Amino acid sequence: MNISEVSNSLRTDLTEHVQTLPAAWREQLAGVLYSHTWAELTQFLQERLQAGATIYPARPLRALELTPPEAVRVVLLGQDPYHGAGQAQGLAFAVPTGFRRPPSLRNIFKEVAQDCGGNPADFDNDLTRWARQGVLLLNTLLTVEAAQPASHAKRGWEAFTDSVIASVAQHATPKVFLLWGAHAQSKRRLIPPDSPHLVLTANHPSPLSAQRPPQPFLGCGHFAAANQWLAEQGLGTIDWSGHSAQT
After folding, report:
1. Distance CA 145, CA 172 (A)
2. What tens digit of pLDDT does each residue of 84-136 get?
3. How far is CA 99 from CA 92, 118, 125, in A?
4. What is the edge-to-edge ordering of all strands in the sheet holding 198-202?
C-alpha cells in the first residue's frame, strides 16, 4: 500500500467487512460471528462512528482477507492497531510504504536481516507480501480510536480473535506461532499442548523490551527457525527479506 493511499479510517458497518472474508473464514468463525458478543461489538462501532469518532483502520479484517485459513503457515500476533492517521492498515506491525517506520517494525527488520540477509533500509513497511505467503498478521484488537491506544479493548474483539487463533491452532496442518511479549504469550492457552505446531516466544520487539531478559527479541533467531522448521515439514519457506509490496 503506497503512502498516497493513507485514508485509513473506518467508514462502513462491520457487517459489510464480514462479507469480504473468504468463505472458509466465515464458516470456521460462524460461532463467534453469530454471537451476542459480535452483535454488541458491531453496535458499539456503529455508535462510535455516528458520534463522530475517528476509528482505524479502514479494513479491520484485512489480515483474514489476505490470508485464508488453508493458506496459514505462520501466525504472528500483535496487540493494538496503530492509532495515528494513515498508519494502521489491518496487518499487525505494518504501516504503508514510505511511512515513518515504527520502532517495533525497525527491530523486526533488524532481526530479519540478521537471520535472512538483506538491508533493512530496503525492506518495505507494507507487510502485504508476508500475508500473501501465509503469514497471518493478526492483532488481538482490530480497531482503535485516533490517539487513544487500546480504546476498543474489552468490546468484543478479544472473543473474535481468540476464535481465530483457536481455529487455526485446531487445524491439523503444522504451523508456526510467533508470540512476542506477555500479551501474545497469554494466547498460548489457545494452542493445544499436543498439537503439531511450533511455538516460538520472545520479548516484544519494542525498544523497551527488545534487548531485555529473559528472552530478548533481538537475537532470537525466529525468522530463520521458522523457515527451517517449515522446510522440515515440507511446507516451504517464507521470503521474509523480500521487499516488493502487493496491494
Report:
1. 37
2. 999 999 999 999 999 999 999 999 999 999 999 999 999 999 999 999 999 99
3. 15, 20, 7
4. 135-139, 74-78, 176-180, 198-202
The DSSP annotation for 26-56 comes to HHHTHHHHTSHHHHHHHHHHHHHHHTT--EE
- Please tell me whether residue 153 adopts helix, strand or coil conformation: coil
The residue with cell 483474514 is 64
CA 45 and chain centroid, separation: 20
Q: Which residues are catalytic?
A: 80
| Contact predicate 136/177, CB 8 Å | no
Contact 190, 163 (CB under 8 A): no
In this structure, the chain runs to a length of 247
With a threshold of 0.90, does the pTM exceed it?
Answer: yes
Helix (H, G, I), strand (E, B) or coil at 70: helix
CA–CA gap between residue 226 and residue 223 (Å, rounded): 5
The Cα 133–Cα 196 span in angstroms is 20
Report how far Cα 144 is from the mean position of its chain's Cα atoms: 14
